[in-house]
Amino acid sequence: GAVVSQHPSWVICKSGTSVKIECRSLDFQATTMFWYRQFPKQSLMLMATSNEGSKATYEQGVEKDKFLINHASLTLSTLTVTSAHPEDSSFYICSASLTTLNTGELFFGEGSRLTVL
Amino acid sequence: QKEVEQNSGPLSVPEGAIASLNCTYSDRGSQSFFWYRQYSGKSPELIMSIYSNGDKEDGRFTAQLNKASQYVSLLIRDSQPSDSATYLCAVQPQGAQKLVFGQGTRLTINP
């Protein structure tokens, strides 16, 4: 299967700072990547769809100015949590699909656990 | 009504028995359906995908899809303690690239 890698796997930051999370497709090109967030004991909630070379599409209720997404190449998408606050502490997971297969199957990165103090 | 619904559990099954997980979805036009397994603190991993009505078997896992009733299920035969995890049902709505996930069912296999 396709490999998606995320970095960092965990990060602790102070309130008010910004944190960048990277998501890379290692052995395929991903024109579309998806960013999910998961709070403890809850399911994955889609935050935004990241499209290479264009603006991301955000889900309702997700602040685009707070969660900045950049998809500058076919193998890299980044999520920046700006001015992080304790309520942003969560498990952030990126995923990508093999668009050549068009099966809808998503391959997930390892996830990044963010703790805001 | 949630787009994808699952019983959150916990579901306890003795080792060696069959575990049955169910999921319903609201978008009748959905075409692609997936079951993911998620261990605590880890990201989801794909278990099964199913696209047409009926059963699809892969080893100890069988996915069942009934589009008329808008439900999809996962059966795990000969359950093992290593199967203990949260199982997420995911559906691709019609015309969308994204997947919508259910809240997950926490499964515990008791030795």
Give a verbal description of the structure.
The complex is a heterodimer of chains A (117) and B (111). Chain A has 117 residues and is mainly beta. Chain A has strands spanning 4-7, 10-13, 19-25, 32-38, 45-51, 57-58, 67-73, 76-81, 90-97, 106-108, 112-116. Chain A is globular, with a radius of gyration of 13 Å. The N and C termini of chain A lie far apart (37 Å). The model of chain A has no long low-confidence stretch (mean pLDDT 91). With 111 residues, chain B is mainly β. Helix content of chain B is 0%, strand content 54%. Chain B contains no helices and eleven strands. In chain B, the strands form two sheets. In chain B, strands 2, 4, 5, 9, 10 and 11 form a six-stranded mixed beta sheet that branches. In chain B, strands 1-3-8-7-6 form a five-stranded antiparallel beta sheet, with no helix packed on it. The chains are: A mainly beta (117), B mainly beta (111).
Topology overview:
The complex is a heterodimer of chains A (117) and B (111).
Chain A lengths: L3 E4 L2 E4 L5 E7 L6 E7 L6 E7 L5 E2 L8 E7 L2 E6 L8 E8 L8 E3 L3 E5 L1
Chain B lengths: L3 E3 L4 E4 L4 E7 L6 E7 L6 E6 L3 E5 L2 E6 L4 E6 L8 E8 L7 E2 L3 E6 L1
Parallel strand pairs in B: 2-11
Antiparallel strand pairs in B: 1-3, 3-8, 4-5, 4-9, 6-7, 7-8, 9-10, 9-11
Between the first and last Cα atoms of chain A, what is the distance in angstroms? 37 Å
Q: Tell me the major beta sheet of chain B.
A: 6 strands, mixed
Query: What integer is the average pLDDT of chain B?
Result: 94
Assembly state:
heterodimer
Structural class of the secondary structure composition of chain A? mainly beta
Beta-strand content bin of chain B: over 45%
State the order of secondary-structure elements of chain A, H for helix, E for strand. Answer: EEEEEEEEEEE
N-to-C span of chain B: 37 Å
What is the average per-residue confidence, as pLDDT of chain A, rounded to a whole number?
91
Can you count the beta strands of chain A? Answer: 11
Outline the low-pLDDT stretches of chain A: none
Biggest sheet overview of chain A: 7 strands, mixed
Count of helical stretches of chain A: 0
Gross morphology of chain A: globular
Instruction: Identify the biggest protein-protein contact and residues per side.
Output: A-B, 22 and 22 residues
